[in-house]
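Hello,

Our lab assistant flagged a job as stuck in the queue for most of the afternoon. It eventually completed. Since we weren't sure the result was trustworthy after the delay, we are filing this so someone can double-check. Below is the sequence as submitted and the structure that was eventually returned. Let us know if re-running is recommended.
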Amino acid sequence: MAPRNPDTIRRELMGLLDAVSRVLRAEAALAKAEVGENLGRMGVALAAVVTGGIIAILALGALLCAAVAGAVALGLPVWAASLLVAVVLFGLAGGLFAWGLSGLKARRLIPTRSLSNVQRDFDVLKEAFDGGSFRT
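-- returned structure --
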């Protein structure tokens, strides 16, 4: 293969650098959007955790009412009703806590699609260089 003109090589390299720069800017924009999306999901999960905490406090109040009603009246209807409300509220609170905590994992912030795209772009560039497309 005959040596290429230095101006041609320079133009090809500048074109390559420009293309890489555009790809990296696009991937950075995608990563920013993806992280914003993930933060939005985490906000919803945090709201669920807070709501679960509030419901747990209400359940504790209901449980205390059940204990007071049981101590005062020792009658099954008031006592059983208060206890049933407390059990249902604790179940709801537990479900919200579990759901909310599962959404707050740090790995959910990682822009996996963007990282995958960048890896694929670099693999293509590496293949182009290794394959001889940009050799003189």
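-- support follow-up --
The delay was a queue issue, not a problem with the job. The result is valid. DSSP finds three helices and no strands in the chain. The chain has a mean pLDDT of 79.
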